[in-house]
Every structure is written in structure tokens, then in C-alpha cells.
């Protein structure tokens, strides 16, 4: 049963990460808004576990919103290199470029943290 749930979740994540994303409009007047738009576009597959705004509704998956950019970047790099392992995160991180990791870590750090 647990294996089926993990497989179904992984399939949903892979399908959502393969869908084409619309081009991001350029907004040189407000870099934070540009970061948020680009990050949201790249973080589509992250939302399956970590929530639409980086706030997870599932206790097994940590919320990412409001965490330190350095912490998020270090975690993604560790999953990508194999230093940290997790069936879902290792697979997701292995497909990320350095630019993706910079964007995603900055994006989730810029979002408001979960309210307790």
C-alpha cells in the first residue's frame, strides 16, 4: 500500500515537471516580483509535496517557505550530489541545474513562512 502511494506520488511529480511552462514576463522594475514569478514557474513539481506557496499540508514533507536561502541551497546540492538521500528528493534534485537551485532557494526563502 505504501509503495503504491509513493509510486503514484512520484508519477504525479514527474508528469507535472514535464509539462511546459509559459514564458516568464520580464519585469526589470521589481526584481522581487520577477524572482517570485520565475520561482513559481520552476517550483511546479515542488508543490506536490511542499505546497503551492511552500507551506506543506502533509507533516511528512517540510514547509520550505521562509527558510534561509543558504539552508535550502545546501539541502538541494546535498540531494543532487548524493550526500543526502531520499527516494523522491534525490530524483528531483538530480535534474536541477545550478541556476535552478539558486532560483528555487531564493524563491522559497522570499515566501512568507508558515504560520503556526
Q: Name the shape in a single word.
A: globular
Detail the poorly predicted runs. 1-24
- CATH homologous superfamily grouping: Cytochrome c-like domain
Which CATH-level-2 architecture? Orthogonal Bundle
CATH class category? Mainly Alpha
- Main sheet overview: none
Strand content: under 5%
Please identify the oligomeric state: single chain
CATH topology: Cytochrome Bc1 Complex, Chain D, domain 2
How many discrete domains?
1
H/E order of the elements?
HHHHHH
Q: Decide which structural class fits the backbone.
A: mainly alpha
User: Into which percent range does the helicity of residues fall?
Assistant: 55-70%
Describe this structure in words.
By secondary structure, this protein is an all-alpha fold. It has six helices and no strands. The N and C termini lie far apart (31 Å). Residues 1-24 have low confidence and may be disordered.
What topology does this entry show?
Elements: H1 2-18, H2 31-42, H3 47-50, H4 69-81, H5 87-94, H6 98-110
Helix pairs in contact: 2-6, 4-5, 4-6
Quick structural summary:
This protein is mainly α and 116 residues long. The chain contains 6 helices and no strands.
Please supply descriptive tags for the structure shown above:
disordered N terminus, Cytochrome Bc1 Complex, Chain D, domain 2, 116 residues, single chain, mainly alpha
Amino acid at each position: 500500500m505504501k509503495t503504491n502511494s509513493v509510486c503514484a506520488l512520484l508519477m504525479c511529480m514527474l508528469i507535472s515537471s514535464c509539462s511546459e511552462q509559459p514564458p516568464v514576463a520580464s519585469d526589470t522594475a521589481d526584481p522581487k516580483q520577477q524572482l517570485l514569478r520565475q520561482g513559481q514557474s520552476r517550483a511546479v513539481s515542488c508543490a506536490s509535496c511542499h505546497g503551492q506557496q511552500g507551506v506543506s499540508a502533509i507533516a511528512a514533507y517540510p514547509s520550505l517557505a521562509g527558510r534561509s536561502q543558504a539552508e535550502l541551497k545546501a539541502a538541494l546540492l546535498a540531494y543532487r550530489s548524493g550526500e543526502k538521500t531520499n527516494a523522491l528528493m534525490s530524483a528531483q534534485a538530480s535534474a536541477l541545474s545550478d541556476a535552478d537551485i539558486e532560483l528555487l532557494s531564493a524563491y522559497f526563502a522570499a515566501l512568507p513562512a508558515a504560520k503556526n
